[in-house]
Design a protein that fits this description.
Elements: H1 3-15, H2 27-38, H3 46-50, E1 54-56, E2 63-74, E3 80-90, E4 94-96, H4 98-109, E5 112-113, H5 115-130, E6 134-143, H6 144-147, E7 158-165, H7 166-169, H8 171-182
Helix pairs in contact: 1-2, 4-5
Length: about 180
């Protein structure tokens, strides 16, 4: 049993009358594996992830990838939050391979997070990767820490946005992004 598994076994011994019952056999191992997966973003290399998927391009119009599903874990309560991420950017001579945008969302989502920071990390990463003229990221998520405990509001949803460069400074660019999301 590795250290993380041993910690889960100890936690179970504090919350369960019979931590060795049939239904809990193997739970420390499965829980440790789950947490390694949920936090795998700490071990991903952004440079390797993007690899050589930055391409020279004369495209200077908005590129939008929307409805990217994501799952993350709230750093305050260690409970999941999940939803959709919408990423747009205006390139300046370089474009990013389509799947790399979803992989960037995945990398940052697979860390203990708050949604506000997650949104910002994705936007700044895209901006730096291709030296974009502007980047817009909107995330919509449901938080289990809000739904299962405390105030227990099951229909609540949090939306965050980060607008950089032309998305922040140019109302037309920002409005185009928001209009595309409404279609």
């Amino acid at each position: 049993m590795d250290h993380l598994e041993a910690l889960y076994a100890e936690v179970l011994s504090h919350i369960e009358k019979d931590p060795h019952r049939e239904g809990l056999k193997g739970t420390p191992h499965r829980a440790a594996q789950t947490w390694r997966y949920l936090t795998s973003g700490y071990h991903m290399d952004l440079t390797k992830l993007i690899n050589s998927a930055i391409f020279t391009s004369e495209v200077d119009q908005m590129i939008l990838v929307n409805n990217i599903e994501f799952y993350s874990v709230c750093e305050h309560h260690l409970l999941p939050f999940f939803g959709k991420c919408h990423v747009a950017y205006v390139p300046q001579g370089k474009v990013l391979g389509l799947s790399k945008i979803a992989r960037i969302v995945e990398l940052f989502s697979r860390r203990l997070q708050i949604q506000e920071e997650l949104t910002s990390q994705i936007a700044h990463c895209i901006e730096e990767a291709v030296n974009a003229d502007g980047v817009g990221v909107i995330m919509e998520a449901r938080h289990m820490c809000m739904m299962m405990r405390g105030v227990a509001k099951q229909s609540s949803e949090m939306k965050t946005s980060v607008m950089l460069g032309s998305f922040r400074d140019d109302k037309k660019t920002r409005d185009e992004f928001l209009a595309l999301l409404d279609h």
